[in-house]
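Hey all, quick one. A colleague (J.T.) asked me to put the 3Y8 job into the tracker so the inputs and the structure tokens live in one place instead of scattered across chat threads. No bug as far as I know, just bookkeeping. Sequence used:
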Amino acid sequence: MTRALILGGTSDASLLAVEIARARIDAVYSYGGRTRAPADQPLPTRIGGFGGVRGLTDYIRAEAITHVIDATHPFAAEMSRNAIEACAETGTPLIALERAPWAQASGDNWIEVPDVNAAVVALPERPANVFLAIGRQHIAPFATRPQHAYTLRFVDPPEAPLPFPADVIVSRGPFTLDTELEMLPARGIAWIVARNSGGDGARAKIDAARMLSLPVIMISRPELPERRRVESVAEIMQWLGHRACLGA
Ligand code: 3Y8
Ligand code: NAP
């Protein structure tokens, strides 16, 4: 009897949850507990960490999970690594729903860097208006470049003081081309720092940057150990032995 654990937190995971609920597959949707009011899901939902690999292993056994679907964000590397280890330890089938990275298109002006620290170094010396579209958790390294005027975008209002003076937009996305084409010039943004998240929910700023001829410092995804991965909800449903009735 199938009982699936969806490691969620992305728009793709939400689409998968709809199909799984529609197919009446026994499943639990899991959030990490990063935001105050995560979107509701059509499945029983748990919120918060498991307690490392050990905690996840215990959860899989206690909840008699038969399949794990890692539908987390490509930058949620710790969760993905833990899932690989816990599934190996418990012999639980694991698959990742992972959207392809964005590819540089003609007209894009990307500076590709491996991580946040390299993104800081890639900024110009002369003061500029910089949009950090990388969330809340990894902005501290930019405090070493106080000459810039920073705009940040968070899902929730900041609780703690910021590591440097900045303007904060509070918005959870997904974002549209219109909002990005309005916001970027209105704030005189000259540089964008982004993560190569892939998918549609965050790509509007990348398309807007191309249209506005703005440079994008693009942070590449963290390396992950080998695991089975697909890019579509339909392939996950097939893996579970069901046919997706997407859009039906
Ligand atoms: C808690 C669930 C949906 C899902 C929306 C997608 C699209 C919008 C793009 C920018 C970039 C960023 C950030 C972003 C995107 C979607 C999707 C996506 C980027 C929610 C969500 C949770 C989170 C966690 C949050 C992180 C933050 C990252 C903001 C829900 C809305 C920057 C990633 O305050 C915090 O601690 C926020 C933390 C991890 C990265 C960071 O380090 O700050 N996402 N985002 C999930 C959980 O608790 O398990 O609240 O409903 C999900 C979405 N975020 O409803 O359609 O699917 O990619 N999320 C990045 O790409 O760099 C925003 O502003 O342009
Ligand atoms: P992370 O750094 O890889 O994970 C750190 C710890 O958070 C994990 O070890 C785990 O704690 C817990 N965790 C993460 N995702 C979880 C989930 N779905 N269910 C239960 N526990 C989870 O993760 P992150 O980058 O902070 O991302 C957290 C969540 O936000 C994920 O759901 C992810 O899909 C979503 N998200 C992230 C980004 C991003 O840019 N990283 C963007 C959009 C959405 P324990 O070790 O205690 O189990």
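Adding what we noticed when we looked at it: The chain has two domains: 3-100+224-239, 110-219. The CA atoms of residues 101 and 198 lie 4 Å apart.
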